Automatic annotation (TrEMBL):
<dbReference type="Pfam" id="PF00701">
    <property type="entry name" value="DHDPS"/>
</dbReference>
<comment type="subunit">
    <text>Homotetramer.</text>
</comment>
<dbReference type="GO" id="GO:0044281">
    <property type="term" value="P:small molecule metabolic process"/>
</dbReference>
<dbReference type="InterPro" id="IPR020625">
    <property type="entry name" value="Schiff_base-form_aldolases_AS"/>
</dbReference>
<dbReference type="InterPro" id="IPR013785">
    <property type="entry name" value="Aldolase_TIM"/>
</dbReference>
<keyword id="KW-0456">Lyase</keyword>
<keyword id="KW-0704">Schiff base</keyword>
<feature type="active site" description="Schiff-base intermediate with substrate">
    <location>
        <position position="159"/>
    </location>
</feature>
<dbReference type="GO" id="GO:0008840">
    <property type="term" value="F:4-hydroxy-tetrahydrodipicolinate synthase activity"/>
</dbReference>
<feature type="binding site">
    <location>
        <position position="44"/>
    </location>
    <ligand>
        <name>pyruvate</name>
    </ligand>
</feature>
<dbReference type="GO" id="GO:0005737">
    <property type="term" value="C:cytoplasm"/>
</dbReference>
<feature type="binding site">
    <location>
        <position position="204"/>
    </location>
    <ligand>
        <name>pyruvate</name>
    </ligand>
</feature>
<dbReference type="GO" id="GO:0008675">
    <property type="term" value="F:2-dehydro-3-deoxy-phosphogluconate aldolase activity"/>
</dbReference>
<feature type="active site" description="Proton donor/acceptor">
    <location>
        <position position="131"/>
    </location>
</feature>
<dbReference type="InterPro" id="IPR002220">
    <property type="entry name" value="DapA-like"/>
</dbReference>
<protein>
    <submittedName>
        <fullName>Uncharacterized DapA-like lyase TON_0506</fullName>
        <ecNumber>4.-.-.-</ecNumber>
    </submittedName>
</protein>
Length: 293
């Protein structure tokens, strides 16, 4: 698995129920434009606002719909037993990868985090993508990632949602350097080209929900060694990533941008998240016009 992977939004109706037709439409769109992977129950998908039953339902529905891309399912929780349960479910339905962010809320040291991931890796066979997102959960150090990767062959890669090119560099050199089948993805649109240039494998980036054509164009230009074109697309993604600075949450930024670009997904977030108002929407409108025309 390499390239552009999309962490899906979860579409909701006005009553906060899951909007299945909108989900079906969005997955069909993403596969039609040619993304390389689709990731359900992601941070962008508000997985912490979903019940276990809803997460399983979405995982099963996504497995029915995704047939032209790699299929990833998020199985994170602060409860290790729940992570094992969700990861086994992802394995049973035929997902290609489980993506597991560290436990959140309670601070944990590297030994506790190693035990958490070890219990999941030892009880399942599905390839696991570690998900390092220190702004929301316990951070995964390079040494911990390396230890897990060398200990467990089913730990297959990492999504790095961290604003540190030095950290990504060290993961690529120290971990991928030891196990060259290990996949390294950025979770930040503005670090897509940096990650590829350092020897990474792609990106799992939320803006690809509404502008996958830019991400795919950068990927194609880089693979074809058209570096001036790749630089131009990278500059566009760097500007586009400012959408996160304009909104109060990932979900609000992405769903507002999607509504402005004509997607049928409603600008509805489940509590405790709130959609931003007209001022933020207008700022996002101006940004999209500047970058995408």
């Amino acid at each position: 698995m390499r390239g552009v992977i999309v962490p899906l939004v979860t579409p909701f109706n006005e009553d906060y129920s899951i909007d299945v037709p909108a989900l079906e439409e969005h997955i069909e769109f993403l596969q039609t434009v040619g993304v390389h992977g689709i990731f359900i129950n992601a941070t962008t998908g508000e997985f912490t606002s979903l019940s276990v039953e809803e997460r399983k339902f979405l995982a099963e529905k996504g497995r029915e719909l995704v047939n032209a891309s790699f299929y990833l399912v998020g199985t994170a929780s602060s409860n290790t037993s729940e992570v094992v349960e969700l990861t086994k479910h992802a394995q049973d339905i035929g997902a290609d990868y489980a993506v597991i962010a560290p436990p959140y809320y309670c601070p944990l040291n590297d030994e506790a985090l190693f035990r958490h991931y070890s219990m999941v890796a030892e009880r399942t066979d599905i390839p696991i993508i570690l998900y390092n997102i220190p702004s929301c959960a316990n951070a995964l150090s390079v040494s911990l990632i390396k230890r897990l990767t060398l200990e467990y062959s089913n730990i297959a890669g990492v999504k790095e949602t961290i604003d540190s090119i030095n950290h990504i560099r060290d993961v690529i050199l120290d971990v991928k350097g030891e196990r060259n089948d290990f996949r390294v993805f950025t979770g930040l649109d503005q670090h897509f080209l940096n990650t590829l240039a350092l020897g990474g494998d792609g990106g799992i980036m939320a803006c690809a929900n509404f502008a996958p054509e830019v991400h795919l164009a950068l990927w194609k230009a880089f693979q074809e060694k058209r570096f001036e074109d790749a630089f131009e697309y990278a500059r566009r993604l760097a500007k586009l990533s400012r959408v996160y600075d304009l909104a109060s949450s990932f979900g609000s930024a992405i769903k507002l941008a999607m509504s402005l670009r004509g997607f049928s997904i409603r600008p509805v977030l489940r509590p405790p998240y709130l959609m931003d108002g007209e001022n933020v929407k207008e700022g996002i409108r101006k940004l999209l016009a500047e970058v995408l025309g």
